[in-house]
Specification:
This protein is of the alpha/beta class. Helices cover 30% and strands 24% of the residues. The protein is built from 20 helices and 31 strands. The chain has a seven-stranded parallel sheet, sandwiched between helices. Helix 6 runs parallel beside helix 7 and helix 17 packs antiparallel against helix 18. It is globular, with a radius of gyration of 29 Å. The chain binds adenosine-5'-diphosphate and zinc ion.
């Protein structure tokens, strides 16, 4: 018996399988999709079995495989096919596609050893034994429950426990346990569906047995989550499985909690904040069919279910669904492929669908479903404050209006959310005397002052250093700071409202595992009056007592040089203002900024998605951007920017011969240098280009070895 094995080679994407002989004693264990350990040159590597043959079909002397690693295949037939599709969509190596689909513990890598977790239990062997008082306590507990955790018994008396075991009265048993604890009980919190919810559900279920993609455009607070839960309930009742994707699960603990309350131990959870062991356990729950629902971030789309009944993608416009390193796949593409295989619906939900998705709905590629009304029937009132005026009057941080609204809100014992999408204390530190700016030596951008840690940090590469005492340029000793981050805002708000309890949530305050969930819990129990945070607080939170949302520098995201910056601004503002007044109380939103007459902000304030869509599409058409055209990216990364530029121009010359392509660049990317590595890019625009893929593949090969830079391709970038 012979097997074709694919291994990961750092030397590059050689998508070749290698043939190995299977020693007779291992033949029983061989199965496509399992991992094996094989000799490779002078090393030993892990790889996936992709094929089994009876005959030797290669021109080199075959070696024996050394070991079969898995008891069950880690890649089933469907995932094997999906990997090939991903390879086509991303121009990555096949093996990297397989690796990206699996949790760390199941990738073909040596040294990622994650083992099953066991706990020790005891059971009673000798029913007749009579011991002293403590021993009897242990015995009667075991008579009552048959199996008891060691920890519990040891808390009675660990020496008695030992004695009983030595005497053979009791016996220990090891049992595998899952690291994530499940809810055994479910809570029945079902509501009566609104007419809109009902019609959406009915429509989707008429097509439950066929490939049918839906775009659910529902305003914030229209009850989309409830609709998702009804779908899942239906699907699981049919004995099928469901996958629910959320943008970043650790940012949406409330949503996960709602699912867990409703579905209890039918759910597995997959996201990046889980430990290796936890992920491994959750994966095995799926594989063993112990759960029928998965809720998770992007990579949960690869959950190894075999009888899918529906895929739901919440906040479908979210950029987190696109993987930013190779293979640069989009979860929606993967999802569409899977539901085609399983002949079932997919529901893409959002209050602000991406322009691409909404256009597909208009073209009939997706069926459009709408929920236009909030459950509580009111939208928050939106106020604008021009900060140019406020700064002149001496209110650079909180405008007079926002300060007044906060005061009123606190008096009514209601809660407030303040959003500022920048962390740290101040953005730039300069010498008052000569103007020298404290810059990151690796990335050529200003360092950010963190007051609590008293240091200067680079938010791109993690470099940090002490704060200047004297200017390295002119020896001056006084400095000024510009720009504000959440730390500074918190300090200011504390000073202005000394009686209020204030909670800050950003990357700096939530590094500890689980701290996120705890903070959100505490805020929802009203232990705090004001929540200050970066965009991590904008998503999916549902606090009935929040009646005021303030957005500082709300037009900030418009300054990012990306053709989607208006769309992102619209989405973000829509989302945050959706946080206000979700229950029976009225909500208000205060937007502070400098260019508040921008159409994205005006439409967001009117909750007018259609208006925004029309105007933005008009601009995209004029400038020839997606969805009117296709866009691809070639990025060169390396330490020598002059060299990169030269290479990029060579590539441009090569591609420009093709008249179906319009090439922009080369130019530096938005963050031109991170950690000493420069990125230079070419943007390729095209409507239809039959030759493009083969040309890109050719380029990829040219840059695989022997160059001083790396070439990366993105066939559908979500950031420019
Ligand atoms: P979305 O996901 O669209 O933002 P949610 O599903 O979170 O909206 O619903 C908003 C709020 O309304 C939640 O607190 C939810 O429990 C509640 N809700 C949803 N559907 C109903 C309903 N039919 N009747 C009463 N309350 C509902
Ligand atoms: Zn840096």
């Amino acid at each position: 018996m012979y097997v074709a094995v694919i291994v990961e080679l750092s030397a590059k994407a050689v998508d070749k399988t290698f043939t190995y002989h299977v020693p007779p004693m291992l033949e029983q264990e061989i199965e496509i999709g399992k991992r094996v350990l094989v000799p490779f040159g002078r090393q030993q590597l892990e790889g996936f079995i992709l094929n089994i043959t009876r005959e030797e079909v290669c021109d080199y002397p075959v070696k024996d495989i050394l070991k079969v690693i898995d008891e069950h295949a880690v890649l089933n037939q469907e995932l094997l096919k999906l990997g090939k599709y991903m390879q086509k969509k991303t121009l990555s190596s096949l093996v990297s596609c397989y690796q990206t689909m699996l949790p760390r513990a199941l990738k073909a890598h040596k040294n990622t050893k994650v083992s099953k977790k066991y706990e020790t239990y005891y059971q009673l062997v000798d029913q007749t034994y009579v011991g002293n008082e403590k021993q009897q306590a242990i015995i009667s507990l075991l008579k009552e429950k048959t199996m008891v955790l060691k920890k519990e018994l040891a808390s009675i008396s660990s020496s008695s426990l030992q004695t009983l075991e030595k005497k053979g009265v009791i016996q220990s048993v090891k049992r595998e346990v899952y690291r994530l604890k499940l809810k055994e009980q479910t809570i029945d919190d079902k509501v009566i569906l609104t007419a809109e919810q009902k019609s959406v559900i009915d429509r989707v279920l008429t097509k439950e047995k066929q490939f049918s993609p839906f775009l659910l455009h529902g305003v914030t607070g229209s009850g989309k989550t409830e609709v998702y839960m009804r779908f899942i309930e239906h699907v699981t009742k049919q004995g099928k499985e469901a996958i629910v994707l959320v943008p970043e699960i650790s940012l949406t603990p409330q949503m996960v909690e709602r699912f867990r309350n409703r579905f209890g131990n039918q759910i597995a959870i997959l996201h990046s904040r889980l430990s290796l062991g936890e992920k491994y356990d959750e994966w095995r729950k799926i594989e063993r069919r112990e759960v029928s629902i998965v809720i998770g971030a992007r990579s949960a789309i690869f959950a190894p279910f075999t009888n899918l009944g529906m895929i739901i993608i919440d906040e479908e416009h979210s950029t987190t669904y696109k993987q930013e390193n190779m293979p640069k796949y989009h979860a929606i593409d993967m999802a569409l492929y899977r539901v085609k295989t399983h002949h079932c619906p997919i529901v893409l939900g959002s209050a602000t669908p991406s322009l691409e998705s909404y256009t597909r709905a208009k073209l009939g590629i997706y069926e459009l479903l709408e929920m236009k009304h909030r459950i509580n029937h009111t939208f928050p009132t939106i106020h604008f404050v021009d900060m140019k005026e406020e700064i002149k009057k001496g209110y650079p941080i909180l405008s007079r209006l926002l300060e007044e609204k906060i005061k009123q809100c606190l008096e009514k014992k209601e809660q407030i959310i303040l959003l500022l999408n920048k962390r740290g204390y101040s953005r730039v530190v300069t010498c008052k005397n000569c103007g020298e700016v404290d810059m990151c030596p690796n990335c050529d951008i200003p360092l950010i002052y963190h007051k609590e840690l008293h240091d200067m940090q680079c938010h791109y590469c993690g470099y940090h250093k002490p704060v200047w005492k004297i200017c390295p340029n002119c020896k001056g000793d006084s400095f000024q700071t510009f720009g504000m981050g959440t730390e500074r805002l918190e300090e200011y708000v504390k000073k202005t409202f000394p009686m209020a309890n204030i909670l800050r949530m950003d990357v700096d305050t939530t590094t500890k595992k689980g701290s996120h969930e705890k903070m959100i819990q505490a805020f929802s129990e009203h232990q705090y009056d004001i929540l200050i945070g970066t965009q991590m607080i904008a998503k999916g939170l549902d606090f009935p007592n929040v009646t005021l949302v303030g957005v500082l520098e709300s037009d900030n995201s418009l300054n990012i040089p990306d053709f989607r910056s208006a769309e992102r601004t619209f989405q973000l503002l829509n989302q945050v203002s959706g946080r206000a007044g979700r229950a029976d109380k009225l909500g208000e939103v205060v937007l502070q900024g400098f260019q508040l007459d921008h159409y994205s902000i005006l439409y967001a304030s009117k909750h007018d998605y259609q208006g925004f869509y029309q105007e933005e599409m008009h601009i995209r058409k004029k400038l020839n951007y997606p969805p009117y055209t296709n866009l691809s990216f070639i990025q060169l990364k390396g330490k020598d920017d002059q060299y990169l530029l030269k290479e990029a121009n060579k590539i441009k010359d090569y591609l420009q011969n093709d008249h179906t392509l319009q090439i922009l660049g080369p130019s530096f990317s938005n963050i031109p240098k991170i950690n000493q590595v420069y990125t230079i890019q070419l943007i390729i625009k095209y409507k239809k280009s039959p030759q493009l893929i083969s040309k890109l593949k050719f380029l990829q090969e040219q840059y695989m070895v022997g160059k001083k830079c790396k070439l990366e391709i993105d066939l559908n970038p979500i950031r420019v």
